[in-house]
Amino acid sequence: MTVEHDIEHQPAEIDGLICAYLLDGDGGGKGLEWTGVRAWKPSDGLLWVHLDRLVGPARDWLLKESGIAPVIGEALLAEETRPRILADGDALMVFVRGVNLNPGANPGDMVSVRAHIEANRIVTLRHARLMAINDLREAIDRGAGPKTPGEFLVRMADRLIDRMGPVITEIDEALDDLEDQVQQTASPELRGQLRRMRQTSIMLRRYLAPQRDAMSRLQAERLDWLSDLDCTMLREIADRTTRYVEDLEAARERAAAVQEEFNYQISERMNRTMYALTVVAAILLPPSLIAGLFGINVGGMPGVENGGAFWIVVAVISVLAVVEYICLRKLRWI
Known about the structure:
- With 334 residues, this protein is of the alpha+beta class.
- Helices cover 59% and strands 13% of the residues.
- 29% of the residues are buried.
């Protein structure tokens, strides 16, 4: 098991506190428990608290003890959110999403992370594990973590977008393979793969497009703790997000084109089959009529007393079928 998976399996999650750090301003930080979090004062330095939003003690602390406005706290704990940025004085509320890279999960089912960032305190919340947050924890443990709230925001957004890149690249490569395979054979398995690719692209774009807009808007927010360098980095992240949205739009269009080709291949196969059956039916129709006439049980049937009549009828039917085949060939129907 990798380190980033181990980090998230902590007994502290029972009371909702996934982790807390008192950052030292040099890239490192001191780990805290609930006692240290409750005893913290702004003069102590920059505090980062990371909570599980569905656990009771964490929710109670956020709403009753954190000092964050109740309306902001309720928004941070909302069940469903879309990516957005909201400034409240010198504080910033950030809702962003990252791809779900947990084992057995669909990357398109994006994980929400909510953050309330102030000059001296950062509060983040999530439920499902998010590897971008793990990256920040590992960096702090190594002494190479963020030093300011602005840098924390930039690095969190950067890690979120970095982990989207391989997923989008995988979608593009999968579509390349599907395009080649559809040209060769339009099997039901390809239909299932194509449907999954389209669903993943749509789900990713559903959240990534508003996240792009939120990142673009963030550049216009003038906060004391957000430096010019931070704004420049956020602009770059917004540009990368825009490129990924464009890639997803292109992937969706490619998937639609592959679907059209798939449907065309299926339609062509059915048309060829129906055409072959029609030709066979046309060739066999006159012989079937003759055979039907000779099969009725009425008096006066010719050849009843002739022992060779059966073979004469078979020969006539065979000659008639051959003549029909030659006529259809000359008419270029087959």
